[in-house]
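# nightly structure sweep
# worker-07 picked up a monomer target from the shared queue
# config: single-sequence mode, recycle default, output format = structure tokens
# input follows
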Amino acid sequence: MYLADRSAPAPEGAKTAADRGPVRAPAVASTVLALGAVSMITDISSEMVTAVLPLYLIAGLGLSPLGFGALDGVYNGVSALVQLTGGHLADRVRNHKLIAGIGYGLSALCKPLLLFAHSLGPISVILTLERTGKGLRTAPRDALISLSTPPELQGRAFGVHRAMDTTGALLGPLAAFLILSLTVDGYDAVFGVSACVAVLGVVVLMLFVPSGGDPRPTPSAATAATAGTATATAAPAGTATAATARDADRPAPVRLRDALGLLRLPRLRNLAVCAVLLGLTTVSDAFVYLLLQRRTGIGDQWFPLMPLGTAAVFLLLAVPAGALADRIGRRTVFLTGHALLLAGYGLLLWAPAWPALPFLVLALHGMFYAATDGVLPAAVAATVPGELRATGMALVGTGQALARFGCSLAFGAAWTLWGTGPALAAAAAGLLCCAAVAGFVLRPSAPQDTRPGTDRPAPTRSEPTDPKPVRPPR
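# output follows
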């Protein structure tokens, strides 16, 4: 099963937790915390711009909903395409921090350029370059998180990172709101402060994020003990044997056909297909906020605060949702998140204009992200060998982002031609159908147990306890 990962009984002869005494759960890896800090600072910078961008383009520059949908789609589509390059390069050079740093640096360089762009053409080019940086860094960053975390804690680790990232998403719109309120030339002030914050994020990455270790699996304690005994009893021969073993164990260079061969893995392929289907019917955040503003009549001065509602709920629930996915199954949590998004669409379509409507919609929007944003990469990490981890995450992330690019184009066109109600109703109907298909595709293939925190079946008596990940077929 691909997203479900319930605990399996302990293999025969293994010590149970009761035999070993109470075991304290390991703390979140320092790499995860450092990357979380970098993402938090960078997200403050990015969300300052994102919070004012829809209003700036539509109210300030007079862009139509169709034009904004096209720009929003390109804004995210470029990031999706570049993810493949970033993921493959990180695996090929075996330095995930380097590629992530290039991505963060490129995004930081683009922020001050917004001060000199006051028409749609230059702004489109700058946003495209900024999204290129995001695409380069996303897969290497997520690979660093997964490679520094035990399989049974992947959901929690991604939840912690997403919670820190969302703290930035919470503070960014608030900073933009304060700057717009206190300055005369508000938009340029937002862009200038955003540039300074982005540079700080790059500095933190360079100083505090380790480059990452060897992505190969760590040998088991029993294997290490056996090797140590053999070395102690036969030192001269052991020296040559150790050198030969090191040469044999050195990872082979990652080739492009190895990366493409990942799609032959059934579990990864099914995850990618479902991510694409659901992405095709996920309306972008900017459109959700514009719809909510028109539905409730919220003033323009309050528009930058709308993302705060989503971010606040995401921040509160990201870690619990990740831990819950590790415990009850990632499939269940992932699909529940899309059901919550569908409920939000329903409120926008049919609920009366209650005073509480904005809070309900933004809460459901934040719950959707908490249940999906970290759970999907955790599921992908369980299906891809370590030496191709960034590439596997990039494949799924690219498919999902390209699908959302298509959704932005289609929704913008539908809004222009039909109006907001029919456009959102079509998106809701599509989401319902795609969620049903995803539930079928990701169902358990057999009533078998799985290891805690992974998507692989528990080993039988004849299987090794720590099998080495198998490279995809060539």
